[in-house]
Description:
By secondary structure, this protein is mainly α. It folds into 3 domains: about 140 residues, Tetratricopeptide repeat domain (Serine Threonine Protein Phosphatase 5, Tetratricopeptide repeat), CATH 1.25.40; about 70 residues, no CATH class; about 260 residues, Rossmann fold (3-Layer(aba) Sandwich), CATH 3.40.50. The protein is built from 28 helices and 5 strands. It has a 5-stranded parallel beta sheet, sandwiched between helices. The radius of gyration is 29 Å and the shape is globular. The protein starts with a helix and ends in a 43-residue tail after the last helix.
Amino acid sequence: MNRYEKRKRAKLTKVTARKTGTPIDPHLDQLRKAVGFMRAGRLSDAEAACNEILAQDAGHSEANHMVGVMYLQRGNPARAAAALEKAVRGNPENGVAQANFGSALSATGRTNEAAEAFHAAIRLNPGAIEAYNNLAQLEMRRNNTDEALRLYRSALEISPRNTQLHANTANALLAVGQVEQATRHYKQALASQPNLTEAHYGLAQALRDIGDIDRAKEHYDTAMRLDPDHANAMLSFSMIADTATETQQDRMRMAYKRSQKESEQRMLLSFALGKIEDLNEDFGAAFDYYQEGNAIRSRQLQYSIEQTRAEFQQLISVFNKRFFAERSGFGDPDDRPIFILGMPRSGTTLVEQILASHSQITGTGELAHFPRSVFSAMSQIDPRGFPSAAPDMTKADAERIADDYMSNARQRIDAGQFHTDKLPANFMLIGMIRLVFPNARIIHCTRDPRDTCISLFKTFFPSGGHHFSYNLEVLGEYHGLYERLMDHWKGLFGDDIIEVNYESLVRNPDTGIRGLLDRLGLEFEQKCLEFHKTRRIVRTASAGQVRKPMFTSSIGTWERYKPFIPCLRECA
């Protein structure tokens, strides 16, 4: 463009500005050049063009917007947020800039500000699908699942065939246990995009939860084929597989070799290959993989066995005979809750599946409602929380905990039904359970400590928790502390705590199940013996195992690893 054309364009711009009232942007040509570079993928040239503008006008909205987007693309959300903040300050009505600002803020952990930016983007452009999607994902991270689902559904009304929205909606539904609805959305996503890896993986998770193990394995396999480095699919597949083809094993081993040491990828693949080598009966190789995966996970955590010792001792000190004698008459007499607890991997999932097969019992899985109700109430009584606040609680406090728990735990359960609450770690709260629900059933699951500990060591828990389980020596000490605490509870409550031993149950299921139901005051039903046929959602590490008839092959598992676990030999 020659000087004459430039003067002509400048004059035209001034005339247009006078007529429309729009301010003249003296950097328009330079901005167009930057846009051209960006469209051509020449990001360095685009950034240089924008910086020329910003050198003269540091608050230029569009130049800051472009620079911010480039920083986002390069994975530098902090610098992106700084540039995009200037962009929206210069032009608050730019909905696209608001959405990008929200993405940058979200990536830097400034979630409240990010939500405000996304809401502004949606207000400015009600059809901004990406803003809906990103805000919904943010709400999922903030555990505002209902709001996330509302946003996804609003977006799907605008774009009902949007594949990614269907997949993300399915992920949110799966997270809250609405498995059948999640399955429908995964299938809708795959109908339009058959090779969407995450939809295959999510559908496999959903199918596993409802007990369709064979189809779950098919979709895990597809996810692994589509993404040769999909460590989550490989681990999830290994957890429910009884066999693995040479192709599947080779795929996992190649992914392991490509992974970086100490990475999340390496950790997940170590657990996966540990299970594969266990299936191959190469227990030395299996242990080496398990050891590596556990070591990586242990280094990620800030677990203190010393703190656990102090916490368990405090529970023993607070909840003594005098404590309960002084609180006679506390709590809700409702006898419908059945708490199933003990060490993880001690048979709690199996016991719940058996009981959930009874016509008078609804299985609700691992609920967080009781500890949440207790901790919330205690923190209001005393800032030190539980258990320090327990001696100061009143009868009304106990009733409030009971009301809060029951209103959350018994949603969509018939009034006449019992319900199971299978959160293993509730063994720490037996004192509170007995205080708040004096008539509730408490089932304590036990198993050979060596089998319990090696089973824990072989398991990665994707939902978190069980931080004590990633170091064998710590694990052995934790088990000892657990046994001491359980001895304390049994000293206080005796036979009110129903003991179910895993080995006895699987060796003599008919006798064990009849005896358990008798202790619960219920008639025997054949379906309890055929528990593996019961269709219900199971979302624990034992999800695949409880879909099989009773088996005894897990008894004595520790002996296969005997040469490698000297710290557990004397555990029993």
